[in-house]
Amino acid sequence: MKKQILIDMDGVLADIYMQLVNYEERATGKKLDLKSLEGITESKAFSTYRECLSQKGFFEDAPVMDGSVEALEYLNEKHRVLIVSAATEYPNSLIEKQNWLAKNFPFISWRQIVFCGVKDFIRGDAMIDDHLRHLESFSGQTKILYAQPHNVGSISDSVVRADWREIVSMF
Ligand SMILES: [Mg+2]
Prior knowledge:
The protein is of the alpha/beta class.
């Protein structure tokens, strides 16, 4: 049976860390090493975090996460995929994110995109997200924490931590 899978954008489809490292280096001249950022929230790890997110082009030029295009093509053929991004806090990100999806994931239709403020009310069978708080308020059965530096050490009984290669083998 087809499952409804909710998929986050930042830190799951978009490689936000690579983008933040580049922006931070441009602003401060210092290149941060991802290993040294493990277990630290993004807003603490990057001194320019808030400014970065408000900068024009930040979301539209973000690199694509390794393995995500192939994984999404596979999931999209087999199941019902919805892209769910808590994006309305940054209004200028909305058009950038939609353009980014159209460019990098052209097989995802506009009907499959949900931009929201909180994710609690969106139902599905599975959720893939890099932030534990979104998974904890999700009512579906399968909760996958997408492996990112900030969530190293995040533990919850109901959540599996995985990357795209591992996720594909679960569906
Ligand atoms: Mg995210």
